[in-house]
Amino acid sequence: MQLHLDLLSPPCRSLYLFAEALKIPYEFRLVDLLAGQQYSEEFGKLNLVKKAPVLEDGSFVLSESTAILQYLVQKCSVADHWFPAELQQRARVDEYLSWQHLNLRSHCSKVFLLRLMHRPLMGSEAPKDKLDATLEDMKQSLDLLEEKFLQDKPFIVGNKISVADLVAMVEMMQPLGVGVDPFQGRPKLTAWRDRVKKELGVKLVDQAHEALLDSSGLQQKMQNNTELQKLKPMFLKYFR
Amino acid sequence: MNLGKSTRSEKFQHFETETSAWLRGECLLKAAVSVRMRPDEPPLSSSVAIMLYLAEKFQTPEHWFPADLRLRSRVNEYLSWQHMAIRMHGSKMYWMRVMIPKIMGIDVPKEKMDGALEDLNASLTLIEENFLQDRPFIVGDQMSLADLVAIVEIMQPLGAGLDVFEGRPKLSAWRDRVQASIGKDLFDEAHQVILGAQDAMKQVDPSKLEPFKPKILRLFF
């Protein structure tokens, strides 16, 4: 089984963490997203949507991290709490996984992309009002994560960690890559993140986020980037 | 379309009436649907999560959400992808062509409209080339939740007067199969509201839509 990943991408990190923490055997295949490798002809044959992560299991190719997570859960017979069989608990996981696309994931990614890519791609810093609006959207998503999904429970579904927490955590880490700390002033979410880290393995989570948190490395990557223009169409579409 | 068994217990009364409407896909067109699983718990939001819950709860026929791992994964793959793709692009069309002119009293700038159309077309092309390919339905020979979710989102721009099926014979043929599978009467009934939306909007007093202005300014300007 191969997983095509780039650890700079939150959905890729969720798969990496899941496979590593649960000791699921797989081969790591790098798709360098900042170098535009997802737009290569070869990758396009693997996934027409031209995005990572992608799973290859023999002749079976699957995209979308939440679908891949559920595939791994079923195939590898992991502990029930990751994706509970009990109907209502499972519904809560499905509810979070569905909501997060256009909310937490979208807004945290936008903050990251605006601050990382606007200057290299557009020649100037992102306009302040645009950034402020994105930060406000992110704040609202974080409020919902805290007040609707987590509430007073240790994890989103209850007492045990599930794929919902994994997916939420990696998305919430993303703005840290551009010096925006979503955990600041949020002790509840900070405590939750620490619980999630503990369940997965603190060292493992830190290692998975190493590239993201290496800000000088990231800046350098953007500066020496001959493939930058490949990213422009995606960037423009994302913000139109 | 076999809707499966139903239970008569009190707690589910709230969504029992919703259920048949649900399985018709009608509720996917409504603004918000909530299902109370237990009185002391918050309602279940998110149409996809609700559908999955109902399919399991009412033990609907297997083709809706296949037990086979690979087929089920294909359904999950589509349900995940569609959020940031066809769902977003389709509903944007409705806002841009119907709601914004009505509420703001101006047309959306051509450049923005062209961009939105380009995105919508890209999503439709991906549905045809990646998710349908040469299969009758997204997962194979039988209709699943993926097709149900896909069809209601694809019908949305029609409510804005945009014929997304024009020049897309593959998509049109699939729509016909979905319609036949659900039953034409039910399909038409479910889409009555959205297809009449443009005309219905004409009757609405714009001042009643004032609360939408801040959201529009944030999202579109």
UniProtKB/TrEMBL annotation, chain A:
Transcription regulation listed as a keyword: no
Primary location group: cytoplasm
InterPro entries registered for this protein in UniProt: Glutathione-S-Trfase_C-like, Glutathione-S-Trfase_C_sf, Glutathione_S-Trfase, Glutathione_S-Trfase_N, GST_C, GST_C_Theta, GST_Theta, Thioredoxin-like_sf
Keywords assigned by UniProt, alphabetized: Cytoplasm, Transferase
GO cellular component: cytoplasm
Domain called GST C-terminal: residue spans: 86-228
Signal peptide: none
Subunit structure: Homodimer.
Substrates-to-products reaction catalysed: RX + glutathione = an S-substituted glutathione + a halide anion + H(+)
GO biological process: glutathione metabolic process
Gene Ontology molecular function terms on file: glutathione transferase activity
Annotated ranges, domain GST N-terminal: 1-80
EC id: 2.5.1.18
Entry keyword Cytoplasm: yes
SUPFAM superfamilies named among the record's database cross-references: GST C-terminal domain-like (SSF47616), Thioredoxin-like (SSF52833)
Localization: Cytoplasm
Protein name, as recorded: glutathione transferase
Family: Belongs to the GST superfamily. Theta family.
UniProtKB/TrEMBL annotation, chain B:
Lineage: Eukaryota, Metazoa, Chordata, Craniata, Vertebrata
InterPro entries registered for this protein in UniProt: Glutathione-S-Trfase_C-like (IPR010987), Glutathione-S-Trfase_C_sf (IPR036282), GST_C (IPR004046), GST_C_Theta (IPR040077), GST_Theta (IPR051369)
GO biological process, any: glutathione metabolic process
Protein location: Cytoplasm
Domain (GST C-terminal): residue spans on this chain: 68-215
Gene Ontology cellular component terms for the protein in this record: cytoplasm
Keyword line: Cytoplasm, Transferase
Catalytic activity: RX + glutathione = an S-substituted glutathione + a halide anion + H(+)
Family: Belongs to the GST superfamily. Theta family.
Organism of provenance: Poecilia latipinna
Name of the protein this chain belongs to: glutathione transferase
